[in-house]
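so my prof wants the structure for this chain in the tokens format not the other one, which i didnt know existed until like an hour ago. anyway here's the sequence
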Amino acid sequence: MLASSIVTEHHKAMATLDHPALSDFEQTRLWESLIGAETRSQYFAVLVQRLRIRQRWLTVGSLVLSSGAAIALLTSVLPAYGWAKGLLALASAMLSAISLVSSNEKNAIESADLSYRWQSLGFQYQQLWSNMYAEEASETLQRLQEEEAKVSKSSTALPNDVKLMTKAEDNILMHYQSRFAA
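here's what i got, hopefully its the right format
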């Protein structure tokens, strides 16, 4: 896997320095947590955009379909389609119901908060990666992983788009691969 090869390259580069306070297992855990946090931050940031766009379309569609002007225009241009009044009213009601039930705005706010929290964790993992030789590195890793569990638990009610998550992870891995290759 690409992530483990980046860790191996980092280990080779650091071989001349003092022994890190983190074991090889802990360093791998740290690296995977760093990638995971940044991936989730990017995932939830994109999810915010998608949810807000979806809500905007639902709102605009509902407003257009429920406006009297649309119904009046349709029945004046196409008098034979008087039955369309009922269909437009039904479609408008359905869009309003979908908008209400899907909780796009609420989910977008929660996603924005989660993106921030994952980004903050990612930054702390980056700092620990840079300071893995510090005496307290192992304790810091443990504390960060406990915080990660709390953040992860709060995201269980939100959509899980595997394709989007994979794309976010690929973007993060490419970013780090290019950093280590330079």
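also thought this was worth mentioning. Residues 23-181 form one domain.
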